[in-house]
Design brief:
By secondary structure, the protein is mainly α. The protein is built from three helices and no strands. The chain has one domain. The chain is elongated, with a radius of gyration of 14 Å.
Length: about 70
């Protein structure tokens, strides 16, 4: 949602702020995944699939923020 909202605002500070928020939410989600995996609520394959997808999303958001 934050990504779409940011691009709706056009270039500038509003976009960058929305991308930073989206990146922070992805990092927070990785933390929740890690906790749930440690508590054995997630299978290993599910954890790594979701975690790796979020890492890629974070990298994409980093490149968007700095472009």
């Amino acid at each position: 949602m934050n990504i779409r909202e940011g691009f709706g605002r056009g270039p500038g500070g509003g976009r960058a702020q929305s991308i930073r928020v989206a990146r922070g939410e992805a990092e927070e989600t990785i933390g929740h995944l890690r906790s749930n995996f440690a508590m054995q609520r997630l299978e290993r394959s599910t954890y790594w699939r979701l975690r790796n997808r979020l890492v890629v999303i974070n990298r994409m958001l980093n490149s968007l923020e700095h472009s």
